Amino acid sequence: MAEKSLPERRVKRGGGRRAAVMVDVAKLAGVSYQTVSRVLHDSPHVRRDTRERVLDAIRQLDYRPSSVAQALVTGRSRTLGVVSFDTTLYGPASTLLGIEEAAHDAGYGVSISSLKSFSRAPVLEAVQRLRDQGADGIVVIAPQRSAVDALRHVTSDVPVVAVEGGPDDSVPVVAVDQLGGAVSATRHLLDLGHKTVWHIAGPTDWLEADQRIDGWRSALQAAGAEIPPLLRGDWSARSGYELAPQLTRTPGVTAVFVANDQMALGLLRFLHESGRETPRDISVVGFDDIPEAAYFTPPLTTVRQDFSELGRRCLHVLLGQIESGQRSWSRVVVETELVVRKSTAVPRRR
Asked: Is residue 5 within 8 Å of residue 56, measured between CB atoms?
């Protein structure tokens, strides 16, 4: 015998329709509200005909589960907290976007706490504030060395992942292979025939800057090439422009690896203004592959970071902690890709 459909019912108050609640669904389906909850959470302990009656009632009433109600039932808010560095820099901003996209794909909302300082007190306060708001787990975008000490003091009962940097042994870390990316950039220039490669680095206290320096040095050492003096910028195009005269005044400079695309943009501008051709006179490689890099003059050879994959790996590690209830240390590395364009070439014979 075919099962009869439920009589259509609308929930009204004072002549206007109100949003249905779980009790309304239970009454229309002729079951308990606990059974409705089991159906919503896809429990296998519900008979097929009962499940169909509940789903039919949900459709008729246009019932949408309250996130608050679901949190009371499951003990989870399906919200993740993100502690982020208050910046418009491409790397941290793109990391945040990658995490938000991955969280959305996994059915989680994101609550963000942006900090101007990554010292211990502000970080711990932000973590606690997000936990008080019901966040199931916390992601800390920690590109600066000052965040390392703060993360070591996050209590072990908090599911947490450090992204981009972080301590080596206290919390799980998901990071881009900054060292490997710098090695590939430097080796690319050496393979073209440049005798050595100069480097404009990022600022001190940035873990990424240090890792890119290490990759640059290790590639030069492996090739037996001379290691030139290090130049320090601040990630801005202005700093790349202001450091450029030190390179053009130095005889024999034919190749420069720049720690980010913005500083590389400043360098390219100065080289053009001073009558130096890129790559005929000086080859330039950047890092990040910002959307504008392909439209620089010339189009910039650079190291691409996969921020979408970074977000997915981060969510995988964090949700594993939430499900298990345990913090297990791990370090996940996301590979980079060298994107070769027209800012690099074999050195000109002099």
From this structure: yes
Residue 286, beta-bridge partner list: 302
Contacts 24+ apart (CB under 8 A), 242-251: 242/266, 243/200, 243/267, 244/270, 244/271, 244/274, 245/270, 247/198, 247/282, 248/274, 248/276
DSSP 73-120: HHS---EEEEEEES---HHHHHHHHHHHHHHHHTT-EEEEEEES--SH
Read off the pLDDT band of 165 (50, 70, 90): low
Q: Where are the beta strands (DSSP E) in 265-310?
A: 283-288, 301-304
Sheet holding 231-232, edge to edge: 231-232, 198-201, 255-258, 283-288, 301-304, 337-339
Helix (H) or strand (E) run with residue 16 in it: strand 16-17
Task: For residue 135, give both structure tokens.
Answer: 């966040």
Question: 302 φ, ψ to 5°?
Answer: -155, 170
Q: What is the pLDDT of residues 251-303, one digit of tens each?
A: 999 999 999 999 999 999 999 999 999 999 999 999 999 999 999 999 999 99
State pTM to two decimals: 0.77
